[in-house]
Design a protein that fits this description.
- It catalyses: tRNA(Ala) + L-alanine + ATP = L-alanyl-tRNA(Ala) + AMP + diphosphate.
- This is Alanine--tRNA ligase.
- It is an enzyme of class 6 (ligase).
- This protein has 873 residues and is α+β, with helices and mostly antiparallel strands.
- It has 25 helices and 36 strands.
Length: 873
């Protein structure tokens, strides 16, 4: 079976078991402060396990794109070295939300593996949770008994808490799990060692392919376990490993998932895959990493120097440096894999082929930039002086952190020089960085404390800005030394930060409306609307008034609706290739990032402004459609954003059916006239192929025009009320240019006069011609020209000029080439003389300057000049 057939067989099998097949969530996580990337299939269902969202389908199946770059067996620096770990991988999963449990999960997993995929039963081993006395957890006898119906008892193995009790994190849903392992060794190897002894022993050919997690507990902050109100099934099967098993390969990289890319790399490098372990690793790294890089960029996360952007930049640079070092790719090459990858996932994850050109150009730009950095790092290493032939750990870490060098590359270059690397020091520096990073981002989150009976929280802020409500639950959080409270309301008008729109602020008033707490922010966490407050109400029970700051909300809506108009105008002026790549919408301004590969010209910006303001003046009424079937929305021509997770039903925001129609969960004006006016204040580059426009609307735009009018009035007054400002300013510029030429001519004449005067004031000392003089010139360039003219006229010249230009003292030192060869250095001399004027400077051995702030010291400078002349030539 091909990889595509294997994937489809899984989805079709569970579809036949009444599972609803859902699309993969984006690999970049939004609205979950605990994650940057989707690292497990269950991430998109986290709110269902926590009971924080309504269950639409009780049975679900999918293939989820995941990214892991840390944790056991998933450290980035190890990927590509072994045969079965990856950065990005697909996780095939089937899920039950309060429906079936262990019996069906075990039966169906066995049926699929042995009857559909036809894996020989004798190759399979299963594990079950053996219990944990310390936790008070009993052996999972139910799973053991169920497996006995299908598997010989010698192939049913107990597992400890570490291997067979799955937890989402330090807190949250968890439960015992039952893994399925497959023994891919040869018959000869199996005869020598019993496969049961190699399960969970990190053997490269005895690997886990499926994990059935039985969610039945919730881990609280104090470590205790609480039974969940409903039991769930959460399964995950590594797609790449499954393909390897079914295609009877000894490595994931030998399957048709990776081989097309590896063979392409091999052909371009002129190096056969399988010829050498080092080049094999390099090809595996490239084939693996381009998958993670491409899908993360397609989902909207660009490489950068912080957070998720830094992670993807680090992955990209690792791939480039392997290509550079081991495959001799000195020019950008990684980007050429993008079209191959896009074609491979066509019909599976079409977001990549839809953005192929964009992704490829971003990767290319990053490669070009990093290859320059890599070259700089190599030069830095070549200049490094190793003490006792050992490269310090701190320097090795600097090469890694700043220039992207893997430690093995530093070791390789060190060996070529007969040096070694202080690996202990390197590891210490690496650990310190990780510890500091964790400490900076650490959040201490308490357990939820229920105030009123648990219920679904409902957002009503599209229609109301003030409602009567109740507190459902709250918890205390501490970050960077500051304590806050997070509050969940039964109903809330507060919009939670999402889609670029900032969260609402406002007040939570008690029922008497005499006392309140300020709501300082509102965010989403796994679909739950969380309100932030510095303090809690004195009495948490009873009714409250939730009141949104209306002024801030209205101004934010002005900017959000203007963003939609801007997006449509950009497509109209620049082309249909324009797609949103990020946005920020608050009460003060809007920021909009979009795909475009050239600077937007002033003429294009003016045209965009005109279109948006026309739409504002037309006072187009908002057309809001809620709960529209997703496919119906797409077929209507709506703009959907890459990297967003849309449900089966969506909300459509339209301003003129033929102009702006987008899927959006944010809040908007009722009609475009409310926006008032729109003004672009800046246009710039963000990254390769991504531009940014910042703009203002409403009162901020009005203030901008008032300020411009005030500035214009001031300018008119300076020009004596001129009616033609452009002509008046041009006249001034012409006059200024004329005066500058006259001054320049006068200065040249003055330099020529001084030159001939100074020649007669040369003093000969020990065969050196000394000129030490204060020069009355008001141009540093003129002083320089005078010094160079004298150098051409006088042999063995030692020249020191002092100047005072605009009240600032200065020193110029000029030496003949002959004196420089004798060991004199103008830069050293000027630095020493500069101390007399409380300043400093430098330059070249024959010419240097200094500036300072003590004009009184200039006299001493001239007196000291002679002291730098050697006594004997």
């Amino acid at each position: 079976m091909t990889a595509k057939e294997i994937r489809q067989a899984f989805l079709s099998f569970f579809e036949s078991k009444q599972h609803h097949v859902v699309p993969s969530a984006p690999i970049v996580v939004k609205n979950d402060p605990t994650l940057m990337f989707t690292n497990a299939g269950m991430n998109q269902f986290k709110d269902l396990f926590l009971g924080e969202a309504a269950i639409k389908y009780s049975r679900v199946a999918d293939t989820q794109r995941c990214l892991r770059v840390s944790g056991k067996h998933n450290d980035l620096e190890e990927v590509g070295i072994d045969t079965y770990h990856h950065t990005m991988f697909e996780m095939l999963g089937n899920w039950s939300f309060g429906d079936y449990f262990k019996k069906e999960a075990i039966a169906w997993s066995w049926e699929l593996l042995t009857e559909v995929y036809k894996i020989p039963k004798e190759k399979l081993y299963v594990t079950y949770f053996e219990g944990d006395e310390k936790e008070g957890l009993e052996k999972d006898q139910e799973a053991y008994d169920l497996w006995k119906q299908y598997v010989d008892e010698s192939h049913i193995l107990p597992g400890n808490k570490k291997d067979n009790f799955w937890e989402m994190g330090d807190t949250g849903p968890c439960g015992p799990c039952s893994e399925i392992h497959v023994d891919c060794r040869t018959d000869e190897e199996k005869a020598l060692v019993d496969g049961a002894t190699l399960v969970n022993a990190d053997h490269p050919q005895v690997i886990e392919i499926w994990n059935n997690v039985f969610m039945q507990f919730n881990r609280l902050k104090d470590g205790s376990l609480q039974s969940l109100p409903a039991k769930h099934v959460d399964t995950g099967m590594g797609f790449e490993r499954l393909v390897r098993v079914l295609q009877e390969k000894t490595s994931n990289y030998d399957t048709d998932v990776f081989q097309p890319m590896i063979q392409f790399i091999s052909d371009k490098a002129g190096i056969k895959y399988g010829a050498d372990e080092k080049t094999d690793i390099a090809m595996r790294v490239m084939a693996d990493h381009i998958r993670a890089i491409s899908f993360v960029i397609a989902d909207g996360q660009l490489p950068s120097n912080n957070k998720a952007g830094y992670v993807i930049r680090r992955i990209l640079r690792r791939a480039v440096r392997y290509a550079y070092t081991f495959l001799n790719f000195k020019e950008p090459f990684l980007n050429q894999l993008v079209p191959l990858l896009a074609e491979q996932f066509k019909g599976v994850f079409d977001e990549l082929i839809s953005q192929q050109d964009f992704v490829q150009k971003v990767v290319l730009e990053e490669e070009v930039s990093f290859l320059r950095t890599l070259s700089t790092g190599i030069q830095r290493f070549e200049k490094y002086q190793a003490s006792n032939n050992v490269v310090e750990g701190g320097f090795a870490f600097e090469l890694s952190d700043t220039f992207g060098f893997p430690i093995d590359l530093t070791e390789l270059m060190a060996r070529e020089k007969g040096w070694s690397v202080d690996l202990i020091g390197y590891e210490q520096a690496l650990k310190k960085q990780k510890d500091d990073s964790r400490a900076a981002t650490a959040i201490d989150t308490g357990d939820w404390i229920v105030v009123n009976a648990e219920d679904q929280s409902e957002f009503v802020g599209y229609d109301d800005l003030e409602i009567e409500t109740e507190i459902l639950k709250y918890r205390k959080v501490k970050a960077k030394g500051k304590e806050q409270y997070q509050i969940v309301l039964r109903q809330t008008p507060f919009y939670a930060e999402s889609g670029g729109q900032v969260g609402d602020t406002g007040r939570l008033e008690d029922h008497s409306r005499q006392f309140w707490v300020d709501i300082t922010d509102t965010k989403k966490e796994n679909g739950l609307t969380v309100h932030f407050a510095d303090i809690l109400p004195d009495n948490l029970e009873g009714k409250f008034w939730a009141v949104v700051d209306e002024d801030k909300r209205v101004l934010t809506e002005d900017n959000h609706s203007a963003t939609h108009l801007l997006h449509a105008a950009l497509k109209q002026v620049l082309g249909k290739h324009v797609n949103q790549k990020g946005s920020l919408v608050n009460a003060d301004y809007l920021r909009f990032d979009f795909s475009h590969f050239a600077k937007v010209t002033d003429e294009e910006l003016a045209q965009i402004e005109v279109i948006v303001n026309q739409k504002i003046r037309q006072n187009i009424k908002l057309k809001e459609q809620r709960n529209v079937p997703y496919q119906d929305a797409i077929e209507s021509g709506v703009t959907a954003l890459f990297g967003e997770k849309y449900g089966d039903f969506v909300r459509m925001i339209t301003f003129d059916d033929h102009f702006s129609k987008e899927l959006c969960g944010g809040t908007h004006v009722k009609a475009t006239g409310q926006i008032g006016s729109f003004k672009i204040v800046s246009e710039s580059a963000v990254a390769a192929g991504v531009r940014r426009i910042e703009a203002i609307t409403a009162d901020k735009a009005e203030q901008f025009f008032l300020d411009q009018r005030k500035e214009l009035g001031h300018l008119k007054a300076l020009l004596n009320g001129s009616k033609d400002l452009s002509a008046s300013v041009q006249a001034l510029l012409d006059e200024n240019a004329k005066l500058k030429k006259e001054i320049e001519k006068s200065t040249i004449e003055r330099v020529n006069t001084l030159k001939h005067e100074i020649v007669h004031h040369v003093r000969g000392i020990n065969g050196i011609n000394l000129i030490a003089k204060h020069i009355d010139l008001q141009s540093a360039e003129a002083v320089k020209n005078l010094a160079f003219s004298l150098k051409d006229m006088i042999d063995n010249l030692f020249l020191v000029f002092t100047t005072e230009i605009d009240g600032k003292p200065g020193i110029t030192v000029m030496l003949s080439d002959h004196l420089v060869k004798k060991g004199l250095n103008a830069s050293n001399i000027v630095r020493e003389l500069g101390k007399e004027i409380q300043g400093g400077g430098g330059g070249q051995p024959f010419y240097a300057t200094a500036g300072g702030k003590n004009p009184a010291g200039l006299k001493v400078v001239l007196e000291k000049a002679e002291s730098f002349i050697p006594q004997q030539q």
